[in-house]
Amino acid sequence: MLAVILMGLCLSLGYMFFSAGMRTGIHPVTASILANVEPVMNPLWAFLFLGERLGVVSLLGVTLVLVSLSVYNIMKSKQAVRV
């Protein structure tokens, strides 16, 4: 029961901080990029702290998110240089 309460607390605090960050003026694209890092970090934390093995699907997902973020940042930096 305690685990369910703690899980609910962690989830609600995460969304609350995300919403508070959006209200303080963080650009929505930046906020969505940070939100996309969560699926990358979850398998890493499970591997480091729980000893879980990373499956092929997890590694493919992590790779996809990291490549997408890299491409976005490269495109954004090229746009900034042109302007």
Question: Would you give an account of this structure?
Answer:
It is a single chain. The chain starts with a helix and ends with a helix. The chain has 3 helices and no strands. The protein has helices spanning 2-23, 28-50, 56-82. It has one domain (2-82). The chain is flat, with a radius of gyration of 16 Å. By secondary structure, it is mostly helical.
Summary keywords:
83 residues; mainly alpha; 3 helices; transmembrane; membrane; EamA_dom; transmembrane helix
Quick summary of this structure?
The chain has 83 residues and is mainly alpha-helical.
Q: What is the CA-based Rg, rounded?
A: 16 Å
Give the integer mean of the pLDDT values.
84
Portion of residues within helices: over 70%
Low-confidence stretches: none
How many separate domains make up the residues?
1
Number of strands: 0
Main beta-sheet annotation: none
Distance between the termini: 55 Å
Shape: flat
Briefly note the structural class of the backbone.
mainly alpha
Count of helical stretches: 3
Organism: bioreactor metagenome
Domain EamA: 2-71
Protein name: EamA domain-containing protein
Keywords: Membrane, Transmembrane, Transmembrane helix
